[in-house]
Amino acid sequence: MFAKLPLTAIRAFESAARLGGFKAASAELFVTPAAVSQQIKTLENLLGSMLFVRTPHGVKLTDNGERLYSKVHLSFLDISSSMSTLKPPADTNTLRVSTTPAFASLWLIPRLAKFYSEHPDIHVSIETSNEVVDLFRDSSVDLAIRCGFRDFPELYSQALMREQFGVFSHAHWKEEEVETSLKLINIRWATSSPASISWAAWCAAANHEGWLAKAVLREYNDEHFALQAAIAGHGLTLASTVLAADYVANGLLIPYRPDIKIPGAQFSAVCVPGRERSGAVKKFLAWMVKVIASCHADYQVARDDASQTVTKRRASLAI
């Protein structure tokens, strides 16, 4: 039945499509770029359809190429997964998770000890980047944790939590600083979003429009740095309630006007369809859902305690 399948050509096509070029595919397959090109030409002749468009900047998949790649790549993943089940368990116990540096450092890594205590046989390898990883092209990544405003219909997606953006101060910040030396910590977002997450939006919601005219702005390009600056007393920061949660729970940061929040994005765990059924991914997803439910409860308590602190502080200033 499968004797006439051009497996060598199909493998060359999958590699070139996943890696984005013939040269990269040749390096992966240990053949020359000319050999990869010839294999793909053979496949195109067999199908009677162009799979790549040759451009001055390289090659790009055609619509037919995209359709074929999605099917071929998933088939190769299934074959690889089937073969992996025959290997010793040690070969399949590394879970590669891709996420942003801020989420990894501020939320995920501090909680990994709990995962290891429940699943000591699974090793989690965390890869961080602010760029979105193409899970179909990079098959080494098992799971990605993304924060965004759009769905990923081509991927399996597990909704985790929705963030909001609020203002936070260090533990010893005094409200009279608003009048004397107001400093605001601003984050230069690496990616655009349909939501207006800015000091201007928060000030408008809080009826503090005059703040921007008199405040000194401190800017950072990463939420981790902005939160550290707030803890160090450099000013108020507008940050994700999810990423600030541990600092609030530990008393290092206190929410200012916790009643005013800007809606943020949705955190989701995504993977290539089918991988969610593998042992390590399935266990990691179940653990995240459980921990997130617990963290929401902890943060609510910490936030309520902080609100009482702010209320008492305001009362003392009014006396």
TrEMBL record:
Respond yes or no to whether keyword Transcription is given for this record.
yes
Gene Ontology biological process: DNA-templated transcription
- Pfam entry (one): HTH_1
List GO molecular-function terms, semicolon-separated: DNA-binding transcription factor activity; sequence-specific DNA binding
Specify the HTH lysR-type domain's residue ranges.
Answer: 5-62
Per its UniProt record, what Gene3D superfamilies does this chain match?
A: Periplasmic binding protein-like II, Winged helix-like DNA-binding domain superfamily/Winged helix DNA-binding domain
Keyword Transit peptide applies: no
Q: Which UniProt keywords apply?
A: DNA-binding, Transcription, Transcription regulation
Q: Which PANTHER family has this protein been placed in?
A: GLYCINE CLEAVAGE SYSTEM TRANSCRIPTIONAL ACTIVATOR (PTHR30537:SF26), HTH-TYPE TRANSCRIPTIONAL REGULATOR (PTHR30537)
Give the family from UniProt.
Belongs to the LysR transcriptional regulatory family.
The molecule here is called LysR family transcriptional regulator
